[in-house]
Design a protein that fits this description.
Number of strands of chain C: 11
Structural class of chain B: alpha/beta
Low-confidence stretches of chain C: none
Number of helices of chain C: 17
Helix content of chain C: 40-55%
Distance between the termini of chain B: 21 Å
Shape of chain C: globular
Distance between the termini of chain C: 26 Å
Strand content of chain B: 25-35%
Structural class of chain C: mainly alpha
Radius of gyration of chain C: 21 Å
Mean pLDDT of chain B: 92
Shape of chain B: globular
Largest sheet of chain C: 3 strands, parallel
Oligomer: heterotrimer
């Protein structure tokens, strides 16, 4: 397996970094740019910015914070939340994003993935899936875990790959913010089904959880938030746990 | 006051120009974008960036009349760094979506990464951090842009194609994609190339850009 | 031609002119907590006050909460209160009514684990439990509390709910009645004089004077004269003669007898008077200390998943407040979160625009069935209804009767609010 990536995820609302539990009850943590630079200095392999209120206002508002952080951060940056059109993507890439994550717009119009991949290249397009457990598997949600879609999450991941997405970002709504560990069956199911990189997100509370997601769940990368934002662990701790499972990770 | 070094960055419609600009700023250099032959010909130091397909890259350069200027600049001995697609375009030919002619600065071809079989072990495009290793056991990085990089250091790759330099000595560093070793960095006199993105490779990448500024 | 403000009738004694708070998203149509057992169709509502600067009482209270109240002193008062009542032999020394939602979880847990009390929790059952509501109730008990769960006679509860809908368009009233009265009744029954509620509802807009004391206003839970009592907008006499109920049926909904409450020396306090209340923090506390789980899906009519999620009829409660006052659930949730500093007013307005008044489709069919009064189950009462069967059409027709002309305008495509915050006061 290729080198595992550890990616801090920053949920951004207006000027603030926020964090919730089950994508609910968002608490303000501070200035996103400050956190981002700190994580970069501590060895983050990439960064992920999600605009949490984008779907509410009908637009992605992260251009300012992307511009600010792109000056000081030299690892890939993925930006998501409210990305709806080719123009949205172009704007974000121009101000410094390397990849964009798309959820709602893709579920509503799957062809958007193809169009985006054709225009900017698959490597720029990340399909973001919020997955919630059902008796038979997982259902895809949109709008920050608020709206059901009736779409099977695993099948949708495969379809996204076929349509041209370069990566899958899968977030477990059930585990998100709980620090109880990733939804390993979900991560495994998706990793088995697609041949593009899978970034597991939602639930990481300890470095060991991250190691499980990649070593056992076969994810290619982990996106983590709670475990870092509250200062309980550092990126180095997370990477050490991954390394301890015999996997390669940057910074050895 | 020291004047910051000016690096001419070729703007041919493909590539993350602003990322390169910011990375250069962080190491004390100023980027100047060149779309026209005359701007390129006036350069003291050139970066040829690039993200996308070989044919599109060649077309972009051709439409702007930049093919000959690049070759001219190289012939003069001006330091030039090709990044990702930029490095691939320096080769003689490319095999992406057909057969295309490259700039011919380095003899060699651009070929696809073999698709993984059922056991995989890797994914295409190759995306993520990979370790840089010397091309051959006796390859030294002294005098190359990798001079300050540690053996085995990670850098960031995003690509589906690789270069195969015909001249062994031109290959400076290798990296791995599953069971395949591929050329990660080239050098021929004043011409340097990296398959990976120094502007996205954190501190290691910054060291590479700094080294290039000293060329 | 558009009628002028003067000409449009305002039902329920609501202010004729519609205004929105400058700071939060609530409108001046918001009714203050009523004494429910005196609530009839003709009751005139007291509504939230707006001061000269256009700021509502609740926002002013929030300001006061942040800046003026000496929380250290208040907490000290709580310690002293607890010291006075704490049992020395480990028996129950206070009653904590609640559902196991984030607020009652917080209250019971704090009292037990931080203030060393021995709370007995009491719950008045929701009309119809949601799965997650039931799970959270169990989680609460499993976090270390004894609990009495009182579930009222299902048929009586349904009948009263239907009556409340027909007469007041207020499906939640039977629950509110039961819940408000349960703890005082249990206190008298078990001889536990100290009762702790959580937040003072006054934080949401009841007159600021109300929040000055910790003690719950006696009016809310005692009554001396049962002839003045109405349940579901129907008098006790009507309930017996027309609808076939007996004393034992409506007794649980009645407030405790004032004499017996006085004899016990019952004291009802708001924990929110002593401890600075932040609903979102209660959510976090409940998750971290007891495995509380937010609802798995967004509640219709709002964006929130952690407020008031244990009763399926809740959805309809807020739909009816939207019909009667033009205030939906998103408005209530957003107003509270703005005052707590969790969201900005801009965001609140956008949330209200997007979610307020959304029809609660998810449990609708179940609720209509719940509200029906078939002969088989209600042999006597069924005859008293022109339409014993509640259907969607009946419900929507009924809704129209409760739309005050000063709030609603009929258009070719349906009904439209004359005033919305996103148009009038964004």
């Amino acid at each position: 397996m290729a080198t595992v990536r550890v990616i801090p995820r920053l949920d951004i609302k207006g000027p603030n970094l926020v964090k919730g539990i089950h994508l609910e009850g968002l608490r303000v943590m501070g200035d996103p740019a400050e956190f981002a630079v700190r994580y970069y200095q501590q060895g983050a392999d990439e960064l992920l910015y999600m605009d949490i209120v984008a779907s509410l206002y009908g637009r992605n508002n992260l251009t300012a914070v992307v511009e600010r952080t792109a000056r000081d951060i030299f690892v890939p940056l993925t930006v998501g939340g409210g990305v709806r059109s080719i123009d949205d993507i172009r704007t974000l890439l121009r101000v410094g994003a390397d990849k964009v994550a798309i959820n709602t717009a893709a579920i509503r119009n799957p062809q958007f993935i193809s169009e985006a991949a054709r225009t900017f290249g698959s490597q720029c397009i990340v399909l973001s899936i919020e997955a919630k457990r059902t008796p038979n598997g997982w259902e895809a949600y949109t709008d920050n875990g608020r709206e059901k879609t009736g779409v099977d999450a695993v099948t949708w991941a495969e379809r996204g790959m076929e349509l041209g997405a370069g990566e899958i970002l899968v977030t477990s709504v059930d585990q998100e913010g709980t620090s109880k560990g990733f939804d390993l069956p979900l991560v495994t199911a998706i990793s088995k089904r697609v041949r593009i990189p899978v970034i597991a997100c939602g639930g990481c509370g300890t470095p060991e959880h991250a190691a499980q997601a990649v070593a056992d769940g076969k994810a290619d990368a982990v996106a983590v938030a709670t475990v870092l934002h509250y200062g309980r662990h550092t990126i180095r701790d997370v990477k050490a746990a991954v390394r301890a499972r015999g996997l390669d990770v940057r910074g050895a | 006051m020291t004047t910051s070094k000016v690096v001419t960055v070729v703007d041919y419609g493909l590539g993350n120009l602003f990322s390169v600009e910011r990375a250069l700023a962080a190491v004390g250099a100023q980027a100047r974008f060149a779309q026209r032959a005359e701007d390129l010909l006036a350069a003291d130091r050139v970066i040829l960036p690039g993200v996308g397909a070989f044919a599109d890259g060649m077309r972009g350069l051709t439409e702007r009349g930049l093919l000959a200027p690049i070759q001219e600049v190289v012939a003069r001995g001006t330091p030039l760094l090709g990044i990702c697609l930029g490095m691939q375009l320096l080769m003689t030919e490319g095999h992406e979506f057909g057969h295309h002619q490259g700039l011919g600065v380095l003899p060699g071809a651009v070929v696809p990464i073999p698709p993984p079989d059922a056991n995989g072990g890797y994914k295409v495009p190759n995306m993520g951090w990979g370790r840089l290793l010397p091309a051959a056991s006796d390859t030294s990085w002294q005098g190359t842009v990798l001079a300050d990089v540690k053996r085995g250091e990670h850098v960031y790759f995003v690509h589906g194609f690789v270069v195969q330099p015909s001249v062994e000595q031109h290959a400076v560093a290798m990296a791995e994609c599953g069971p395949h070793r591929f050329c990660a960095s080239v050098r021929r006199e004043n011409v340097h190339g990296t398959q990976f993105h120094p502007e996205k490779s954190g501190p290691a990448g910054q060291a590479i850009l700094s080294a290039f500024l000293k060329m | 031609m558009e009628q002028t403000t003067q000409e449009l009738e305002a039902y329920y004694g609501l202010p004729r002119e519609v205004r929105f708070c400058r700071r939060c998203v609530i409108s001046n149509q918001r009714p203050n907590s009523a004494v429910e057992f005196k609530h009839t169709r003709d009751s005139k509502k007291a509504t939230i006050g707006f001061d000269a600067e256009g700021v509502c009482d609740a926002c002013r209270f929030a300001e006061h909460k942040k800046a003026t109240i000496d929380w250290k002193a208040r907490e000290q008062q709580l310690r002293e209160l607890c010291d006075r009542y704490r049992s020395s032999d480990g028996s129950y020394d206070c009653l904590v009514p609640g559902s196991g939602g984030k607020d009652s979880f917080y209250a019971a847990h704090k009292l037990k684990y931080e203030y060393g009390m021995h709370p007995l929790t009491v719950t008045w059952a929701p009309h119809i439990y949601t799965d997650w509501g039931w799970k959270n109730h169990r989680a609460w008990i499993n976090a270390g509390f004894d609990n009495y769960l009182f579930t009222p006679n299902g048929r009586v509860h349904r009948l009263l709910t239907r009556l409340a809908v027909d007469n007041l368009f207020h499906p939640f009233q039977p629950f509110i009645l039961g819940q408000k009265n349960l703890a005082p009744r249990m206190a008298v029954m078990l001889g536990i004089p100290l009762v702790f509620y959580g937040e003072n509802e006054a934080e949401y807009g009841n007159p600021i004077a109300d929040t000055g004391t910790a003690l719950r206003d006696q009016r809310y839970f005692t009554v001396d004269d049962y002839s003045k009592v109405y349940l579901g907008g129907a008098s006790l006499v009507d309930l017996m003669e027309r609808y076939g109920l007996e004393k034992v049926d409506f007794d649980p909904y009645l407030p405790v007898n004032a004499e017996r409450a006085a004899k016990l020396k019952m004291e009802v306090h708001y924990l929110g008077y002593y401890l600075k209340w932040h609903p979102q923090s209660c959510y976090y506390y409940a998750v971290e200390n007891g495995g509380f789980q937010a609802a798995p899906e967004r509640t219709p009519g709002t964006y929130s998943k952690y407020n008031s999620i244990d009763d399926r009829i809740d959805d309809f409660h807020y739909y009816t407040t939207w019909i009667k006052f033009g205030i939906g659930r998103a408005t209530y949730d957003a107003a509270q979160e703005i005052r707590s500093g969790d969201i900005t007013r801009d965001e609140g307005v956008a949330l209200v625009k997007r979610f307020d008044g959304e029809f609660p489709e998810r449990f609708a069919e179940e609720i209509f069935e719940y509200l029906s009064i078939p002969a088989k189950e209600f042999p006597k009462a069924t005859a008293a209804f022109a339409q014993p069967n509640m259907t969607r059409a009946t419900f929507m027709e009924l809704a129209d009767k409760f739309r005050s002309p000063h709030l609603w305008r009929k258009t070719s495509t349906g009904w439209e609010l004359r005033h919305t915050i996103w148009k009038d006061a964004p």
